[in-house]
Amino acid sequence: MIPAPDAAATDEPTQDAELASPPGWTAPLRHLVVNPLIIKDGLSRMRSWRAPAAIAVYLSLLGLFAWLVLSLQWSSAPRVYGYAQAGSTVFTALALVQLALVCLFTPGVAAGAISGERERQTLDVLLVSCASSFSIVWGKLVASVAFIVVLILAALPLFATVFLFGGIDAGQFLVIQLLTVTTAIATGAVSLFLSTLFRRTLAATVMSYALTGAATAGTWVLGTILTQIALVRTLARGPGPSGQTETYPLLYVNPIHAMTAALQGSGAIPLGRATQLFFLVAGTPSTAGPQIEPWQATVVAQVGLVVVAVAATVALLRGRRVFVPRWGR
After folding, report:
1. Distance CA 201, CA 273 (A)
2. Which one of 128, 131, 204, 315 counts the least CB within 10 Å of its CB?
3. Residue 175 pLDDT
4. 10 within domain boundaries
């Protein structure tokens, strides 16, 4: 007689076949979310007393600034400003202050993600592990930006109180929060790239703050100057086709200008006219192409910057090429 096959022997090929079967379409998403570096760095940061202290300081600064703006506005001219105008002014001030705080906190959190591992001599352990270079970079980026996102979420009730005064609709509220989150992600991605490029955390942090300031305040100042130059060149023709002064396209990738334009409900320009203004062409205004709003251009530019910074960080981490300046040794 032929002996009956063993149950364990019968089940083993089935289990191997299940393991060898191709994963579903959700497998890439699981690899992006289930990352040991996100869990490790996220838990270690939130378990420290610095996390609740930073949240308390963050909310205290925003709340104090909102109270000062509202008190100053009503004490200077209480009969001139209505509730809707007061709410719009306070919301604009809160949005700009939150953007400044995000640009201040993000480089300090993300600039030491890779260089800190190198200084603690644990980077080689990550490189020889089963995690790929992209998984390491993605885990460090998400762990660094997640804390900034927690700060933004913690401030949502404070922003929501402005709806009691009016002057702000839900669309503007969502656009402001989207711009803040994308700015935090872009700043974190660039800071992570500099953390991989430089050997020391101090050098990476200094360069991160310098580039963040240049990308926000620097482009805003330069764009304002170029706007005035473009205005002088088209002064004989008068203002733009919409009856408003046209801005230089550099401001369309600036989060400060994008926020103020979104709250004022202005700033849309055809793509053809933006090209003319970019080259300071003082001809007949072109109406070719779709209408582009500043917040749309800013979000697209920041998403592209994140993709480029992550790709460059992965390439540096794979090649283990480190730029060591003379002053950074």
Report:
1. 43
2. 128
3. 93
4. no
